[in-house]
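Hi, here's the filled form for the chain we discussed.

Project: internal
Contact: R.S.
Residues: 140
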Amino acid sequence: MATTSVSTPIPAGLPVTNVLAALHNHDLMIKTLCPALISYDFESGDPSKSSTYTVTDKKPIGQTTYKLTLTNTTDGINSLVNAKPPAGVLTIAGKWRVIDGTLREDVEIDGNFMMKKMAKGNVEKTHPAQHSMLLQQAKA
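And the returned structure, exactly as it came back:
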């Protein structure tokens, strides 16, 4: 299992309630997590608590479809990606939390060695921008 964390300071004056509302907005989370989003479909659950979606996304290696489960928590949201790329199974579990004036995301990645390495590098490269985008939306 590979792990990594991304932390972004919450801008001064931005209420925690706004950040939590943005995290709990599943449509916004999907669009933030999937910048090359092609489409997504609600599959099951309750969007105010926990829901599973089928997401189709454009990746450097082409189009990919995977399951994304978003579960709201009192201090953030959990995201779970279950993907079956050609190279095997990939699971990415994220815990997004509002803690001590920061938006912190702890990520666990499971899959074969190559998939874990590639996914961890991708999270570390792209998620700081996703945090910034989400915090921008929380201001609106």
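Let me know if anything looks off before we file it.
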